[in-house]
Every structure is written in C-alpha cells, then in structure tokens.
User: Which sequence fits this backbone?
C-alpha cells in the first residue's frame, strides 16, 4: 500500500525534517514507534503494521483489514493521494509514475518505467538471451584487441545517452548499480570496452525486465 502527497516538500536536506517530524507525531499518536535503525520507518505492534515515509511518499505493510484505518489516518492529516493496495487479499498489481508493483504466490516484484529499457534495447539492438548472465563484469572487453581504444565520435553520443538512461533505470534496479557505476567512469572518454559493457547490461535488462 502507498500514498503520495499532493504537495511535495523540496529544498535543502534540513527542509524535509519538519515533514518527517510531523509524520512521526501523527503515527506516534496512533500507537506507532520509530524504528531506531531507520529514521523514517515506524512500527505499530497492535496491528503488526510497518510504515515508511520517503520524501512525499508513504509505504505500508499491514495485514488485510487495517487498510481503511490507514487511509483515514493519513487523509485526516495530509493532502494525500491514495495509491493502489497490492498483496495477499488485495490487488495483484498496481501502478505509480509508470512503475509497476506486482504480487503472486512467489512474492512481490517491482518494475520501473518499462519504456526506458525498451529505448535502451532499441538504441543498442539488444536481444534477450536464455543463458545465465550478470549485469556486468570487469572481464568484458578484456580479450578485445581494441578494448582500450576510444570510441569513434559517431558512437560516443549513443554511449553517453544510453548510459545515462541506465542510471535512471538503476534507481529501481539495485542489482545493476555497480555495472552502471562502471559505465559512468567512461562518460568523459568512452572506450570500446565501455561500449561492450553497456551492451552487456542492455542484454541483461532485456532478459530480466523485472526485479523479483
């Protein structure tokens, strides 16, 4: 379950503190306690409800039957949009900002905006593979004789734009973040090996479009 504030709170790092403090006061009055290891996470033992406040979003894990109470609590204290409810006894999928949260007997899945991966695949002509493949490897390009040569000028722009797009995808895909960091090291002077690593990452994303 999740909720989104109609009015976001932007500014310096300290600017979000009043919002977090107010959220804490609201949830504490309802019987929740702040989780010590995560400042914006709360737990209400009476209903076995865990809540996370992240920026202008609230996310919650709670047994079925408590959802109406949470809707009413947040709506009474915030200008808020009620998001989809996904999980056992709820819907099997929900969408927010083009991202998909799904649930099945195997567990939850999260998929970022699929159009980004589609654009990466089209730009690099990436195809899915049935073999086991990781997002990246330092060994990619090691056997290529021209691995350390600079990319031709006509391929530099594509490398940079698609690497940047991969950076956006990595916000929803933590398992590719190391591979993306490796690509970003080559943004200033892209080499052949960086392009090969980008193509490997693109193949991985097409083969595994969802985080499961």
Assistant:
């Amino acid at each position: 379950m999740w909720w989104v504030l109609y009015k976001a709170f932007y500014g310096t790092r300290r600017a979000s503190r009043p919002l977090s403090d107010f959220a804490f006061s609201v949830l504490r009055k309802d019987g929740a306690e702040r989780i010590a290891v995560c400042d914006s996470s709360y737990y209400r033992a009476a209903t076995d409800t865990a809540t996370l406040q992240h920026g202008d979003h609230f996310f919650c894990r709670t047994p079925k039957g408590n959802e109406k109470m949470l809707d009413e609590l947040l709506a009474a204290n915030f200008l808020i949009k009620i998001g989809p409810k996904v999980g056992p006894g709820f819907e099997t999928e929900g969408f927010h900002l083009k991202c998909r949260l799904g649930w099945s007997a195997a567990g939850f899945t999260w998929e970022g905006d699929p159009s980004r991966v589609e654009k990466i695949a089209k730009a690099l002509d990436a195809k899915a593979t049935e073999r086991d493949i990781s997002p990246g490897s330092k060994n990619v390009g090691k056997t290529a004789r021209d691995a350390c040569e600079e990319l031709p000028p006509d391929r530099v722009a594509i490398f940079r734009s698609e690497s940047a797009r991969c950076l956006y995808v990595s916000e929803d895909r933590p398992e590719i973040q190391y591979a993306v960091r490796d690509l970003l090291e080559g943004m200033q002077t892209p080499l052949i090996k960086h392009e090969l690593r980008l193509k490997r990452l693109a193949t991985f994303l097409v083969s595994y479009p969802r985080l499961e």
